[in-house]
Write a structure and sequence with these properties.
Blueprint: E1 2-8, E2 11-16, E3 20-25, E4 39-45, E5 48-54, H1 55-58, E6 71-80, E7 83-99, E8 116-120, E9 127-130, H2 138-144
Length: 152
Amino acid sequence: MKVMVFHIGADRYALPLWAVARVVPAAALKAIPLAPAWVAGLLDLHGEPVPVIDLSSLAGVPPAQLWYDSRIILVDYPAGEGATRPLGLLAEHVVGVDSVDGAALRDAGVGGAPFLGQVAAAAAGMLQLVSLEQLLAPDVRALLFCNAGAAP
């Protein structure tokens, strides 16, 4: 399976490549009042406002620092009722595309953040998948996609 690899703190994580719509440089974001601290803000993507999540803050490590290789990974997030909406994931040290043997994926066997999925051993170190479906709690999904049922 092809994956997009990035770091959260010192650890390596990945999204299945099929989930990645595009990757853009980190950019200035508009704050979203009353949103959780790990909601980085809104990205202006060709006139379309796209909410952006800071993956580091969401995982409980210090907020993402902007590096030369920090990126916003855009995904089509399942926003409910069969709708998808663009969502940005602010990630430090985006490494690029790699391959993971699906047979090598194992359950992590520990609790923790519900959006963290299976792990695989790799030459560069352990890699953990991020589950888009488990990324946002229902109340945050409602805050970011309050009109998910409406036509975009």
